Amino acid sequence: MADQHPFARHWNHNSHYYPRIAELLDGHRVVLDVGCGEGTLARYLATGDTVPVGERRDGLKQPQPAPESFDDKDLRHEVVGIDADAKVLAPDAPGVHFMLADAQQLPFPDASFDAVVSVGVLHHLNEDLGLVEMRRVLRPGGRLVVIDTARSPVHFGPLEIRDMAANLVLGLGKTRWRPDTLTAEPDLNWTQSRELIEGNLPGAHWWRVPLWRWVAVWDAPAARRA
Fold first, then answer.
1. β-strand partners of 69
2. What is the pLDDT of residues 115-151, one digit of tens each?
3. 3-state class (DSSP) for residue 81
4. Whole-number Å distance between alpha carbons of 128 and 99
């Protein structure tokens, strides 16, 4: 059933994959959301909340106090969200802290996070530099999950037709949602995107998925024992 998707009321080509991201990050406690925008993914990862700030009845006009302990059973992750666009950043919420920062120069020490996620952001950056920074702040054994789009050299190839069909079928019964965040056209095509990931993240898994998206998952090598 279409209404069973957690983001059926706020659906787009990115939020469609938010539940899958949560699955991929299961067990990774402290998460950095790079290019968090208005923060819907970050709040979802922390508590399962699926309602964007702009549509909440309380509006989250005041910063929400974090719980005394992130061991609170209602919190899935402790999340830090960063974005370079100050006007879209939301107030802090339980389990989530938002801050203004440059994804190409992350203001965190090396090995600060159990997991890093980036959705629809990499093509806005110098891709190599963005990946280097995400990798730098990831702890040994941590996980990096990137979802992005690419430039299609053809408009009606088999995978492009699949994407168009998926857009219609997967969107049935859902409310299309477009957050007020920056947009940009990708420079890299699908092959170049895969090569970018393979060059920066040896051993990463990369695959093209419906809705004009690709997914990359990379697990950082575990720390060597002395």
1. none
2. 999 999 999 999 999 999 999 999 999 999 999 999 9
3. strand
4. 23
CA 130/CA 135 separation, integer angstroms: 9
Contacts of range 181-186, beta carbons closer than 8 Å, 24 or more positions apart: 181/37, 181/38, 181/85, 181/88, 182/85, 182/124, 184/123, 184/124, 185/123, 185/151, 186/123, 186/148, 186/149, 186/150, 186/151
Cα–Cα dist 66/17, whole Å: 26
Q: Which H or E element spans position 128?
A: helix 127-136
Query: For residues 211 and 168, is the Cβ–Cβ distance under 8 A?
Result: no
Report d(CA 45, CA 49) in Å as an integer.
8
More confident residue, 5 or 55: 5
Q: Which of 24, 42, 30 is nearest to 96 (CA)?
A: 42
Q: Which runs of E-coded beta strand occur in the chain?
A: 30-34, 78-83, 96-100, 113-119, 138-148, 205-209, 213-219
Query: Phi/psi class of residue 196: alpha, beta or left (left: φ > 0; alpha: ψ in -120 to 50)?
Result: alpha
When pLDDT is cut at 50, 70 and 90, the band that residue 64 belongs to is very low
pLDDT at 182: 78
- Scanning the structure block, which residue is given the tokens 């061991």? 71
Beta-carbon contacts of 24 under 8 Å, excluding residues fewer than 6 positions away, are 143, 145, 217
Q: Distances in Å between the alpha carbon of 67 and those of 25, 93, 139?
A: 21, 9, 24
